[in-house]
Amino acid sequence: MALDRRQMLQLGTLIAGGWAVSSVLKRTAPIGRDVANPEALAAIFDDRRSPASGPPTASLRLAAFTDYRCPACRRAFPAMEEAILSDGDVRVIYKDWPIFGPPSERAAQVALASAEQGIYPAVHKQLMIDSRTISDSVLQDIVEKAGGNWKRISAYLISHDQQIMAQLRANGAQALTLGLAGTPGYLAGSVLVVGAIDKADFLRLFARARSSRK
Q: In CA terms, which of 3, 176, 188, 198 is 20 to 30 Å from 12?
């Protein structure tokens, strides 16, 4: 049965009202879930092999489990950066977890190798925003634009292959310990959020993580 104009308007009002209520509930409900596993948290945040950026003495640490070919990771990356810049007191611990196949693994290997040259954050950022299909020529371009030496990266990948693969396996094991089934996953202090979120929700995550320590 077709709806008349009045019924259509009423339906539209109900839908709009439902969306508004849903939006309010989302913003007021607690974000994330608590991770009550001190040993797992220590293993994640105290792993010195993991690249990091931000103040070493920051009041909050954020572990980001991501894959460079993960659409949700790429969508959330600018929001995460904006929230971190807005907050000003967050240290990011990068957890490359390449679960989207060989190109993801190759990109993660190159990113980790770039840490030896002190350019991991720049390489990580470019890999997250670059729209090209991952290949060695693209990876070389990204490394060199970040100020790195590709030949040195290539040599490091050979000489430190086992260490890099061990780091990727450790990241995967840490992700599974948290109960992650995929990327992205964001662990702020002891509060875990799964999936892409926007800047406002990252800021809510930071606030909840800090308040949970009190």
A: 198
